Amino acid sequence: MNKWIGGLTIVLALVIAIVPLFSDCLSQGRSLKTESGMSVPMKCHWTALAEVGMGIPLALAGVLHFTSKRKETFTSLGILGVTLGALTVAFPTVLIGVCSNPDMMCNLVERPVLIFAGTLVIAASLVNLYRTRQMAEQVA
Description:
The protein is mostly helical. About 75% of the residues lie in helices and about 5% in strands.
């Protein structure tokens, strides 16, 4: 079961780190123009970069599921997964956000994918925590 959760975590980490980079407005050639004529990335670009930061430790947590055998480690990985999953959902919704135009690619693809993937990470991590708790009760 832990290897299944680890594999799912790695796949979701890749989705979280890669999909936003190709669905933000900057990848579509859109940016904000300042009064001085400079081009500035929109909020969705900063969300995409933050999600790369979420995907890397999440992928490492998935790899650790394959190499670990102690229940304390699985408990720690479950807590880490819930935290990173919650941050994955929070970045496009409340922390950084995405563009305000509902027809933009970031609203149609980036935001829903990140919310879905982050929710799956939280669910898988909660299953991991539940299974770890069962392991502890069986030993006692």
